[in-house]
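User: Show me sequence and structure for the first protein, then do the same for the second.

Assistant: Starting with the first protein.
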Amino acid sequence: MSTTAENVAQLADPSATTLLRFATAGSVDDGKSTLVGRLLHDSKSVLTDQLEAVEAASLKRGQEAPDLALLTDGLRAEREQGITIDVAYRYFATARRRFILADTPGHVQYTRNMVTGASTADLAVVLVDARNGVIEQTRRHAAVAALLRVPHVVLAVNKMDLVAYEEKVFAAIAEEFTAYASELGVPEITAIPISALAGDNVVEPSANMDWYGGPTVLEHLETVPVSHDLTGCHARLPVQYVIRPQTAEHPDYRGYAGQIAAGTFRVGEPVTVLPSGRTSKVSGIDLLGESVDIAWTPQSVTLLLEDDIDISRGDLIVPSGDAPATTQDVEATVCHVADQPLTVGQRVLLKHTTRTVKAIVKEIPSRLTLDDLSQHPDPGQLVANDIGRVKVRTAEPLALDSYADSRRTGSFLLIDPADGTTLAAGMAGESFATHKAVTTVADEEGWDF
């Protein structure tokens, strides 16, 4: 296993290994922070002073062994209550891969933070207490992972030491969760029995579960296939800033700067600027102060065009042969993350890439019931942690891709114009990957929100 010094060196050299972004989720007290702490500790990714601080804090609380959850629960309120409130990001590495980890909260009122942590994740680790099995919060986290199209999900059945490491307990939970997540359209599910507190099957294989022959959590994280190659996707450049020096050295320079969200741009390529629809050709590409002939995601570049056309922040530059349709009517699935409800007729701001426009919520066709994946029609409003379908009318046209095609240009935020509060995170187009028709129920029995 790598030493701490080696891990730091690997983080400093991004070309050394591949990168995996992953998020942890689960109900409160399922042991997420302990699992993360165990991963960091057993993979030797904890600095000496960090470990000493955790040992000292644990002693103050009357604990003989260091509480590894304290490695991630950094807020004072979290340590006092023994829960995770904020999304805790951690960076570590092994000899095989670098990791960016988002430890998300378990309490229902903080489910919104999972949307933040999982929105860019390649993999989600959903923890389940072996004594409790699959509960409502587990289903909610599985639904969020499916909506955000996280390609890999790990079911970590934790606290196996408290159920005498019984295989039948693990098998029943794994079967129930796999059936549910598969119906949501999660493409890959891996179930692993663990004890984060004791270290079973986290980094080292467990001697207490010889009936399990699969990978440990770290082994799976190190070997799961991930691809960050978005160069073959629809090319998109949201304009962040227009550069016009107007100096003696650059009197006519006009460049359009931004980070390429997906795809590849080449000099000489015909492009279209949306939503105006004006066309031109790429006459030059500046990257890190140098002129290049080609640029790809996620590089931050400045595009130069042959024609002087009206382009400003929020516009989208795309290849002329691969331009998305613009629309003022947006239909999407949203995860509601604010305390105040989202209601029909409400005026909001819609932020898509670098563009923010005024909008009105025209309709809330349905709300998802997590127990049986049915849609309750016309709920009238969405409240915190609800998942539902919305129809929004924008004041100006937007160039939205389907979220299934692009997580960057198919997503948006709904914002309260009064105080800037984020109300909901939206995914344009179809909701779950299965595109399966779900049952509509008209009665109020069985609502889980």
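Switching to the second protein now.
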Amino acid sequence: MLTPPTQIPWKQRLLWSGGWLVAFVWAGVFPLIAAPGPHRIWGACASLGYFCAALAALRPRGRGPSVGFALAGAVAVPLLVLLSGGGAQSEVGVIERSGILTLGQATPYLADPRTVVEVTPYLPGMAVFGLPRAVLGDSGPLPGLLGDARLWCAAAFLGCLWAARRATLRGTDGPREGAGGTLSRDAVGTFVASPVFALPLCVSGVDLPLTGLLFLALVYAAGRRPVAAGLALAAACSLKWTAWPAVAVAVVLLAHRGGTRAAVRGAAVAVAGTVLLVLPSALLSPGPLVQQVFAFPTGRGPWETPAASPLPGRLLADLGPAGWYAAVALLLAGGLTVAVSLVVRPPYDLVSAADRLAVGLCVAFLLAPAGRFGYLALPVALAVLARLVGGARPPAPGLVVRASYPRARPADPVAVTAAWGAR
């Protein structure tokens, strides 16, 4: 008996179920360790959702239901619980306070922060996601819900995915000329339900707009749209300075895909847009911006950063001043190596550009004097999203793939006559 085309083969069902079981184990660890309260709540809800998704994936047509179970358990339920109970990482309060400060004094930085929770380690663009709280306040359940910065960070990320999908549907995606790889519904749902996205969304959401904008910039660069890529880069670079290396990757990709003129246009728009968005706050509060945005995250400010995961750069910095300088030297060497790779072997499509940017960000996060494991979700997300859109990678430039086809045989007249007679 032939398997109906709507049914999923058994091997694929096992793979899907196994993936959800891995996520189940990952989420189930959080309630058992000394993790922050929001992380434990997410783990308790998400582990149940992932387990139900693993069971549903074993059914012949269970891919859609399994994604639904995962989305409910890892996103909808924990987010609702955390929003109603006010549970969140400190980054959410920082973003909302920066929006209130920007509305009141046109800059998101306090002149003299007394504690670490009063520090704003983001560039001025991040305050946009705190403006709803500044406008709506928190008096009442509905304003308190709609003003939460996590919702707006998630909306920005999903909006970038929507824009990327439209770009690929119009044939602007570089890796698949004429085919236009797209984000399918199951692919988007699976990614949103995965721990890479669901955990940051529920507990903080701070890196979601950055991820979406960087991915969208690479999609536009692969599609030879320098102005759109430059605008997306400018928006990303106004959120965090960790987005700045993406300008080099996108410009090199534009040069390969659209020529030198496209690369210059994209770079000019990105730099001019970033300056336009950051300069007002830099002029109003230059000292606080340098201290809070650049010195504090690298462990050189007067406040101790909470980003203290035992990564190589952090372990070196804990050895004292010499260790800190050694970590910075290794960080600069790693950045120089990635920069040289852009010249020696420039990225040629969306997947290769996302991979190069992911490698650079991983090097930066691992060797930075202060960092945390959660930062690595950004490069992982870029690499995964590029493959969801780009599909199979084409051969690298200079490589020629020759396919051999079997020579056609003449049809047997007797067999053809018998087949038509059977009909």
